[in-house]
Amino acid sequence: MKTSGYQSNLLGCTLILVITLTNVPAQVFHYAEQHAYLSLVLAGAALLLPLWIMSKAAAIDPEHSLMDLLVTRRPVLGKLILGLYAIFFLLLLARDLRIMTDFTSIFLLQNTPLIVLSSLMMLPVIWMARGGADVISQMAEIFLPILIMVLILIPILGFRDIDGRMMMPIFDLNMQGIGLGWWLFLGYMGDLILLPFLIRGRAFRFRSGFNGLLLGMACLMIVVVFGLLILGAPMAARMSFPTYELVRHLQLTDFLDRFELIMVALYYPSTFVKLGISLHLLCRVFELTVPKLRDNLVAAPLGVFAIVCSLWFYDDLVMLIQINMYWPIIAIFFAFLLPGVIWLVLWSKREPLPR
Amino acid sequence: MANYVLILLVNVLIYMVADWKELRKARRRNRWLYVSIMVVTLVIGWYLYKTNHPFRPGNWIPSVPF
User: What is chain A's pLDDT, residue by residue, as a tens digit (355 residues)?
Assistant: First the structure.
């Protein structure tokens, strides 16, 4: 089944938005202060380059998906590149799972062991990955619009708490801080490079990625700008999860005391979609590199392996936050350098394959 | 600290039961791949459970000169 344009927009938005809005904004607020939104715009602009390169690489043979193209045209080199991306997919899966496990452990289920939380989270993700790209796309179609609606509620319900002085001085630009904020955002927004590998049945188009990027950036902009206006950069920079604190500020009169719990419950399924994308792509790499292996067979072992990796790689949330400064190095390699290599590899064998 | 090995073993058993039909149809080499990933997972889980200060790749990354 083909991935529709609407689905690819939502998937692009999922990749950029869902995990980035957890703890990265706090660090960006620390460095870029009241100009955090400029860091976001710059990170989004930088991602246009890899999207364009990937669309050019995919356009070499629009009949096939990018992963199939790599394996059929350059069997050895293609598998090597996919092997490198498999490491990237595993790292992303472990990082995202650990962030969500720590988030759940801190705010919702303090007494439950981390391994139990991550096992429970991985259960729907494994079933989603077994279903393949179609299931993931359809899940994104259901849950991402709900998440976007929740984010749109932030300006509506938080309007009375806005303090315009939090954005002052607006023209005193701290370029070094904005640059560091850009660097931090790039590490997480670089996950957008997963989108070209996810599109099936047709070539990845630049416009699909661009629309997803715009949608994700618009949602992140709401979080960043209203985080600044409601919480203020000095306070938000000292929080582990500033978006959660922002949502906690929202009150629907006296109707619901813990309104944020409903919002968090609506947020969780979108995170499962993001985890499902990483796991599915990891399984796809195995399917393409191991003969006669179906991707749904390895979903469970790789999912359980990701659980243990998420607990093994990172000691605690503090380490995760420290490593955020180094993530952009990984993102630059996989989102900027390797797409260039992919384009070169495919371009050197660009004549159409015999049918 | 939760018993990593026990909880991982429960996970492994649940998924192996769920994948039983697929595993029976799969080639022998692919069955071995499935089992070996599960075994590596359990070994890492056992290492994490038994070691007080395990080696973590996350500890090593910040030591990279940057």
Answer: 677 888 888 999 999 999 998 889 999 999 988 899 999 999 999 999 999 999 888 888 777 788 888 888 888 898 999 999 999 999 999 999 999 999 999 888 889 999 999 999 999 999 999 988 889 999 999 999 999 998 888 888 888 888 888 888 888 888 898 999 999 999 899 999 999 888 876 667 888 889 999 999 999 999 999 989 988 888 888 888 888 888 888 776 666 667 778 888 888 999 999 999 999 999 999 999 888 888 888 999 999 999 999 999 888 888 888 888 888 999 999 999 999 999 998 888 776 655 5
ipTM: 0.92
Tell me whether A298 touches chain B (CB under 8 Å).
yes
CB A125 within 8 A of CB A279: yes
For residue B16, the chain A residues in CB contact (below 8 A) are 300
Residues 6+ apart with CB under 8 A from A104: A117, A121
Quick one: closest CA in A to B1, which residue?
A: A113
Provide, as residue numbers in chain A, all residues whose Cβ is less than 8 Å from the Cβ of B48.
308, 311-312
CA-to-CA distance for A119 and A244, rounded, in angstroms?
23
**DSSP E strand stretches across chain A:** none
